[in-house]
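Notebook entry, structure prediction.
Reason for the run: the old model in the group folder had no record of what sequence produced it. Starting over properly, with the input documented here first.
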Amino acid sequence: DVDAFKLSARGIAQLELKNASIPLVADTPVNLQWTPAADTTRSSIHVKLDISHHGGSKGMIECDTADAGSLELPGALITELLDLGVAGFPSIIVTRRSVGSAAIATGRVDLVISAKTEHFVDIEGVTSCSDTSECPDGQTCQDDLTCK
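New structure, fully documented this time:
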């Protein structure tokens, strides 16, 4: 049994990236842009860049940052991630979060309010597919959901 407690969290605005496309190129930083929160102290941004999840995840970039409207992922990290391997439908998920917490006798309770957006990223030479009909002539859809 848990005694009664109060918990609240601030509402947040919907999150939309301003990037028309998100190309991943070795040694080139990725600059993400969004409309910042009206009060940047009330929410934060979580980023997850995963380009190999359909081929057995080999690595990803995850980070948290202030909800200030932009984030640069360094080119060196992009290169390291690309070197681990790519599978079909590589994507980036960006989430705005506001958290309210309450301490209770047995620990802590968090209320998380979030808005998430997911975008495919562009990697030269990678064509994603669900079946061979989506592949260029002479290529077939592989188990990792890429055309080869």
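Summary: The mean pLDDT is 95.
The old model has been moved to the deprecated folder.
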